[in-house]
Specification:
alpha+beta, three-stranded antiparallel beta sheet, 10 strands, about 25% helix
Length: about 170
Amino acid sequence: MRGRPTLTTERLILKPLTLADEDAIEDLLKDQRIARMTTSISFPNPPGATIGFLKRVIDPENPDMSWAIRRNDICIGVVTLRPGGGLGYWLGPDHWGRGYMTEAGKAVADFAFARGEPRIHAQHFVDNPASGRVMEKLGMKLIGPGTPMYCPSRDETMDQLEYERLRDG
């Protein structure tokens, strides 16, 4: 998945993450509500974790593609596309309920399908129905229970639900 373009929507700009996004991401991750719904973020966010994450995602050898979700040139979240169409995302709680994640997700899904991915798929913890609603708004269908995953901020393994959308479906 080479090439990390900037994606533009009606209200958002999705820019490939850079080291310059460290402070904005650190600020957002001070809210435990984000970490509680992810499989990759600890709370509190340990020193060096954000810069380590950014170095991994900007490495040209990394096949994942991650974007800063920007509204009025302010980073409000992150969305990632993995090889095989895996979609991951989080948004700062001050921006929940405004359709931003659906808008960003649609841009990334359209990009994935245009690049030839046959499907997009994502999972969410069972106690995060808002993420499931985003997936449904992206045209994804519930396909069943997902793989239980460890949530570092809760220090427990959580059940998940899995959704997918086929490019031609």
